[in-house]
Design brief:
This protein is an alpha+beta fold. It has one domain: Aminopeptidase (3-Layer(aba) Sandwich), CATH 3.40.630.30. Helices cover about 35% and strands about 35% of the residues. The chain has 5 helices and 8 strands, in the order E-E-H-H-H-E-E-E-H-E-H-E-E. The strands form 2 sheets. A 5-stranded antiparallel β-sheet has the order 1-2-3-4-5, sandwiched between helices. Helix 1 packs across helix 3. The longest helix is centred in the first third of the chain and has 18 residues. The radius of gyration is 15 Å and the shape is globular. It comes from Nostoc cycadae WK-1. InterPro entries: Acyl_CoA_acyltransferase (IPR016181), GNAT_dom (IPR000182), N-acetyltransferase (IPR051531).
Length: about 170
Amino acid sequence: MQLIENFATNRLLAERLQFQHLNELNWMHQNQQVMATLGGVRSDEATRLFIFNNLHHWQRYGFGLWVFRDKVNHQFVGRAGLRHTDVEGKNEVELAYALMAKFWGQGLATEMGERILQVGFEILKLREVVCFTLTTNKSSQRVMEKLGFKHERELIYANLPHLFYRLKF
């Protein structure tokens, strides 16, 4: 399987998640505003475990999360990618994304998602991808809808109410 280590969008550079990104992810994972819809602030140790688990995912499946930077000044924008996850006992491939708050509202999550879905459907030959968010996260819901995801149902995930979306190729 072809590993997609790096790629670019119109405004962003993406590189495969590595342990060298620990400081940036700690910065993100300890930001209360960013993590309010992502399960809450994480400790340094929880972020190390997050990276370890995502590196293992890359080894097992040949895809995972990427770190995104602004093309102009290489500033850390966020993380996004595809990963296997269990949803109500079913293995699904999820589009996951998180951006630093200063980059919200600029269309960057949609730009990231478009390119990641292209990789998923055209290169990885996935047939469908899911996405879910808290029922209160209207911004993320808009991103999913712009990307073509269709609302399927409500569910409880991590003991919280979520909206579940699916996109089929």
